[in-house]
Design goal:
By secondary structure, the chain is α+β, with helices and mostly antiparallel strands. The protein has helices at residues 25-40, 53-69, 83-93, and strands spanning 112-118, 121-129. The chain has three helices and two strands; from the N terminus they run αααββ.
């Protein structure tokens, strides 16, 4: 226990997947195969009539950036959410085009990603990590 305050923000919830919610992978393919295939090809799809990945990033990334702005100098922000929300937020924050967000890959349970800010903006330092990051010595501090 750290004694630090914890806050909740609904902007960090997982992607709403409409009628896909609660279905197994096999059921989604069986009932919505064409839509699923389009999504897997990277097309912007409202899975099950739910949210686009860009809409998830539209609500989550600003929430994270606002929280960062409130940190004291040298402070650390810990954000806990679901893999899809984390992936889209990271993609948006590091400036990847939405069709490239899938390249970040999934996030395993109880794993994390680490972003750092430098003179050029946000940078992905660790992804799907299971151990604490070690500083990287470089000339881009």
């Amino acid at each position: 226990m750290t004694g630090l305050p914890v806050s909740h923000d609904k902007a960090l919830r997982e992607t709403y997947a409409g009628v896909w919610q609660g279905l197994t992978h096999e059921e989604i393919i069986e009932r919505h195969g064409e839509q699923y295939a389009a999504w897997k090809r990277g097309e912007p799809v409202r899975r099950g009539g739910g949210e686009l990945e860009t809409e998830v990033a539209d609500r989550a990334a600003p929430t994270v950036e606002e929280a960062v702005a409130d940190l004291p100098e040298g402070g650390t922000l810990v954000v806990v959410s679901h893999g899809g929300t984390i992936r889209t937020t990271i993609g948006r924050m590091i400036g990847l085009a939405p069709h490239s967000w899938e390249a970040l890959g999934g996030l395993a349970n109880c794993s994390w990603s680490v972003l750092g800010e430098n003179t050029r903006g946000w940078r992905l330092l660790e992804h799907n990590a299971g151990s604490l990051p070690e500083p990287v010595i470089g000339d881009d501090t």
